Amino acid sequence: KAGVTQTPRYLIKTRGQQVTLSCSPISGHRSVSWYQQTPGQGLQFLFEYFSETQRNKGNFPGRFSGRQFSNSRSEMNVSTLELGDSALYLCASSLSGGRAGNEQFFGPGTRLTVL
Amino acid sequence: EDKVVQSPLSLVVHEGDTVTLNCSYEVTNFRSLLWYKQEKKAPTFLFMLTSSGIEKKSGRLSSILDKKELFSILNITATQTGDSAIYLCAVVTTSGTYKYIFGTGTRLKVLA
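ok -> structure tokens follow
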């Protein structure tokens, strides 16, 4: 069974630009969550999508947005990039959100550097 | 506000040592606690704990949850250099929908 895939793996942008990251979950998984990981901050939850609907959202500004397609693939968009957005962005998929504690499977992440 | 705190932040040991990593939490609507190992990029799942006092074990790794004192420990015996990684603890809460709240992790380095 193929794992979670994320593209691109590395990205360099400049301040003010926007970026779109992609995540393909494990086949059959309908829940996709996005996290931002920076040194010293741990993983911070961005949002979760389930069946094309944003079901949960963390405490990030509106510049961070996402969507999910009918095949469960998800995209995350960050507009007006700031230096502080430099981070590893991880996506995780799980079977469903209906039962808490489902194991999440993480993708390899996208390393975003904002210059 | 829900929070998960891991300690120590980092740890350096020698091969063969036994280590204990701690995860304490203050959350509402606790459902489960998860441990992950992150070596390079993607965290990989280790354990899921939902009941107090029941030890989960996998090889040299074991973990237990105390829901009364609100913490969990992850033990690694006879450490090897391959155990060097960041160990993440996450607590799952639910208030209609569920959330995963991660700690900042413990960075473990095992020296040969």
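The interface with chain B takes residues 4, 33, 35, 40-45, 48, 55-56, 88, 90, 97, 100-101, 103-109 of chain A (CB under 8 Å).
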